[in-house]
Amino acid sequence: GHEQVVKLLLEKNADINAQGGYYCNALQAASEGGHEHVVKLLKGADAKVALEQGIEEL
């Protein structure tokens, strides 16, 4: 499921703080979707909590 995909992406050094899409970043998407284990994985990998995009970029 989602947790295995995130683990693989973390192993491959994917940019977990990349911004874009409806939820702006992976941490927000996981949080909104109720994926607690994925949120813990991302936080453990130092995913940023603060949104850096300006409103004009959304």
Layout of secondary structure:
Blueprint: H1 2-11, H2 26-32, H3 36-44
InterPro entries: Ankyrin_rpt (IPR002110), Ankyrin_rpt-contain_sf (IPR036770)
Keywords: ANK repeat
ANK repeats: 1-21
What key phrases describe this protein's structure?
single chain, about 60 residues, mainly alpha, 3 helices, Ankyrin_rpt-contain_sf, ANK repeat, Ankyrin_rpt
Give the structure's gist in a few sentences:
This protein has 58 residues and is mostly helical. 45% of the residues lie in helices and 0% in strands.
Describe the protein's architecture and organization:
There is one protein chain. The chain has 58 residues and is mainly α. It has one domain. The chain is 45% helix and 0% strand. It is built from three helices and no strands. Helix 1 runs parallel beside helix 3 and helix 2 packs antiparallel against helix 3. The longest helix is centred in the N-terminal third of the chain and has 10 residues, at 2-11. The N and C termini lie far apart (28 Å). The model has no long low-confidence stretch (mean pLDDT 88). Keywords: ANK repeat. ANK repeats lie at residues 1-21.
Please state the structural category: mainly alpha
Terminal-residue CA separation? 28 Å
How many E strands? Answer: 0
Tally the structural domains: 1
What number is the mean pLDDT? 88
Q: Uncertain segments of ≥5 residues (pLDDT<50)?
A: none
